[in-house]
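Allow me, if you will, to draw on your knowledge of protein folds for a short while. I have a record of one protein: its chain in single-letter code and its fold written as discrete structure tokens. Kindly check, if you would, that the fold set down in the tokens agrees with what the sequence suggests. Thank you for your consideration; the sequence and its tokens are set out here:
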Amino acid sequence: MDAASTPAEAGRRRVRVIFVGSPGAGKGTQAAKLAAYLGVPRIATGDMLRETIAKGTPLGQGAEALIGRGKLAPDDLLIALVRERAEQKDCARGFVLDGFPRTVRQAEGLAEMSSGDVSDWTVFSVEVPREELLRRLSGRRVCPRCQATYHLTSSPPKQDGVCDLDGAALVQRADDQESVVAQRLQEYAEQTEPLIGYYNERADMIRIDGNRPMEEVFADLKRRVGVAA
């Protein structure tokens, strides 16, 4: 797709996009917006994991214990979740991945789904300074019903502690508590940053400055995916 292509035209060809970046970099927001723009599904492993945990299965209980300590979910679990989702009919024209892959092992599992070739994938590395990541994550609050997301300083609800959409009491996820946030960022540095080297060699990887207003970042993504995808 060249810079002049329209979102509808993007939807008629296979478009596969990966977001790489630290927790709090804004990948989820931008992945959702870009998926809607391109007309393809967003595959969000974080949402799928929370659904698994909510069901209370042994697998979900194990994942909950890991996430509560700031640990990443097991590679094999996430690979299986993504494979199952990507095989559904609505993904035939492509998809945007949100929260996956986070390790080289996951990237290898993803490549296996594409017969080992990811050269036609677009990979965005969203980069934000650590201090800003800490501020974003520790101030984040979510609605347990509709999953709407707020921030205590940058996007607070109209009524303190209450969701604007359904009136539910907002909560802070266990993995957004300050001590867990620090662990998550450390885990990212150790396990996820090697993805940049992995995709530098195998795919079209584009670095994006995520420390800007949301709409400015999105405009940049639209421009870059128009050239790269």
About this structure: Residues 1-6 have pLDDT under 50 and may be disordered.
